[in-house]
Amino acid sequence: MKLVRSWIGLVLLALGVFGILDAAGVTGFDVTAGRWWPVAVIGLGLAVLWSQRRLTFVPAVIAVVGIALLAGQLQWTDKDLFWPAMLLVTGVAVLAGLWRRPAPPRGESMVVFGGAKAVDRSAHLKHADVSAIFGGSTLDLRQAHIDDEATIDAFALFGGVDVLVPKEWRVELGGLPILGGYEDKTTGDGSLAPDAPLLKVNATAVFGGVKVANEPS
Fold it and tell me: What would the pLDDT profile of 161-207 be if each residue is shown by its tens digit?
C-alpha cells in the first residue's frame, strides 16, 4: 500500500513541477503531459500488483489499458515499442505472482475499483493500513484488542474508507484532506476513562472520504 501511495504522490509532484515550469515558460506542460499521462495509469496498476504480491484482474487491466493509451499517444507500431512493453508488463505481473500469498496480511486492506470489508481480530493490535482507490473499503476493528495505543493509516483516493471501532475505544482522528474529508462519527461522549485504549487514525483523503464509526452506516 505504501508503494501505491508513493506512486500517486510522485505523480502529483510531477504534475506540480511541470505546471510550474510551464507557467515559467521553461517547458510545454500541455505537450509533455498530453503525451505521457498514461504512464501514471500504468504505474498505478503495477504498484497495486506489486503491493498485493499476486496477479489480480483489475490492476492488470489498469496496467494494460495504460499501455494501450500510451501506445495511442506515441503512435507505436508493432515494430517499435508496443509489444516489448506488453512483454515487460507481463513479466512484472509474473514476478509479482512469485510472492503470491493466499490472503492480504492481517491489518491490511486495499481496494481498487470495487468494495471490500476486512475484519481484524488481533489480540494486540498495534498498526493497520486500509486504502480505497476508486472504490470503498471497510476495516472492522470491533473484535480487535488494543493494549494501550494503536494507529491506523487510512487512504482514500476517489473512494471511501470506513473504520469501525468498539465504543470502549478513544479515537484521535487527523490527517490531510485534499478536496476530500474525514469524519469521526463515534458515539463517545467524553465519559471514557483517560486510560481507555486509544486509536489514532491518520487519514489521507484525496477526492474521497474517511469515516470512523462504531456501527456501519
Answer: 999 999 999 999 988 787 888 999 988 656 777 788 999 998 888 88
Backbone φ and ψ for 17, nearest 5 degrees, come out as: -65, -45
Planar angle of CA 151, 152, 155, nearest 5 degrees: 150
DSSP string, 105-120: PTTEEEEESSEEEEE-
Nearest 5°: phi and psi at 188?
A: -60, 130
Look at the chain and count its residues.
Answer: 217
From 89, 126, 94, 91, select the one nearest 107 (Cα to Cα): 126
Helices and strands, number each (H, E), in the chain: 5, 10
| Distance in angstroms (rounded) separating the CA atoms of residues 11 and 43 | 9
Whose CA is closest to 201, among 110, 135, 139?
Answer: 139
- Count of beta carbons in the 10 Å neighbourhood of residue 75: 9
Grid coordinates standing for 112?
Answer: 481498487
pTM of the model: 0.60
Other beta carbons within 10 angstroms of residue 25's beta carbon come to 7
Residue 172 and residue 150: Cα distance in Å, rounded?
Answer: 10
* Cα–Cα distance for residue pair 72/30, rounded to 1 Å: 17
Cβ atoms of residues 154 and 183 within 8 Å: no
Note whether 146 and 194 are within 8 A (CB): no
